[in-house]
Amino acid sequence: MAESTCGLHLFWDEAETGYDFGPGHPMDPTRLALTMRLVESLGLTGQPSVTVRSAPPAGESTLRLVHTAEYVAAVKRAAADPSAVDAAHGLGTDDNWAFPGLHTASALIAGQSVAAAEAVWRGETPHAVNFAGGLHHAMPGQASGFCIYNDPALAIARLLELGAERVAYVDVDVHHGDGVQQAFWNDPRVLTVSLHESPSTLFPQTGWATETGGPDAGGTAANLALPAGTGDAGWLRAFHALVPELLAAFRPQVIVSQHGADTHVEDPLAHLAVTVDAQRIVAEAVHRLAHEHAGGRWIATGGGGYAVVDVVPRTWTHLVATAAGHPVDPATETPEEWRAEVYRLTRRPAPLRMTDGATPHWADFQDGGYDPADRLDQAVLATRRAVLPQHGLIP
Questions:
Q1: Residues 6+ away with beta carbon under 8 Å from 1
Q2: Scanning 201, 297, 321, 382, which has its CA 20 to 30 A from the CA of 88?
Q3: The pTM is what?
Q4: Strand-pair partners of 32
Q5: Which of 280, 269, 323, 316 is nearest to 298 (CA)?
Q6: Separation CA 77–CA 207 (nearest Å)
Q7: Which residues pair with 127 in a beta bridge?
Q8: Cβ-based neighbours of 175, under 8 Å, separated by 6 or more
């Protein structure tokens, strides 16, 4: 999209790096700092279409749009006494370590996503990005999967509170967007679409094609469970076989998306084989779909991603650049000052270019037909058969 149609509010606060479970935890906040440094080094924050903003932490009344009062109190208790284990609320567990800044850092990240939703809905900007967000596993009363407060769900809930009648949530993290699905399971105003590795091989063991929404919201949850080992061609084929058609039928007023970078072949916690180049293509596709179906209104978040140096900063910088209307040529060399910062923070060499060197191609599902013996096509067809008829579409 041209710059003239793409203004961006980039929500960032350096204090978001305080979302830090501690040494040895996979959710390393260095990935956030390195992303912002790469965004800056490539000159994106100096573009006239880009405004960098910081919002205050989400207050208790905002958090309670999704989370229970009991759970918010439990998070505060865990922050006050990080040594305690509160298994009932998922705090102090193997995944969700407690730390003194647990509530304040989590609320700050949530506040950025909520403010992004407000800015887009009120027409202050067509696009907003909070790459520190995307904490999609948190449940109303429980932490889960490194996620304390569910900022995408809170952003959606705020949009509904402001008067939105149709919100689409598109989640391309390698893990199922279970917390957001749960929050709006029986709400026909919210369409949740998740492409993720099969629950048979990956946490959180949910997100089957048969999960399609509650009794009052049939067809408003769509789950495409991808076989382990799926690479660029299959991932892009699956995305384009489901998401554009569903969004066209649902006619959202705004799109909220989650761009976990953990689909990447180098991610240590999952089993897909996607490249930075394919992740960039999907960000561009969501951007285009927002203009086609939602008046350009788009709120994008980050999410998972545990290849801290080689993957996450490049993937989310492409996301920011796409939303800004200033896409970065994949062949662009990463700036020397950024490589120096990578080494300073991690003692590891940085990637040299904004590409993995891939040129992804995929065969269109609808036009090219499907192979009934192919596990990916079986998964695509299962989801289309489960969801599309509920929207009056032919699977």
A1: 287, 288, 291, 325
A2: 201
A3: 0.98
A4: none
A5: 323
A6: 32
A7: 8, 298
A8: 136, 137, 145, 196, 197, 202, 203, 204, 260, 262, 270, 304
Kindly indicate whether the domain formed by 8-391 is annotated with CATH number 3.30.930.20.
no
Phi and psi at residue 41, in whole multiples of 5°?
-65, -30
Domain ranges of the chain: 8-391
The residue annotated as part of the active site, out of 136, 137, 287, 293, is: 137
Report the alpha-carbon angle 179-181-184, nearest 5: 110
Cα maximum dimension of the chain: 58
pLDDT tens, residue by residue, 46-87? 999 999 999 999 999 999 999 999 999 999 999 999 999 999
CA 329 to chain centroid = 22
| 137 noted as active-site residue | yes
**CA–CA gap between residue 280 and residue 330 (Å, rounded):** 9
| The residue to which tokens 């390393």 are assigned | 28
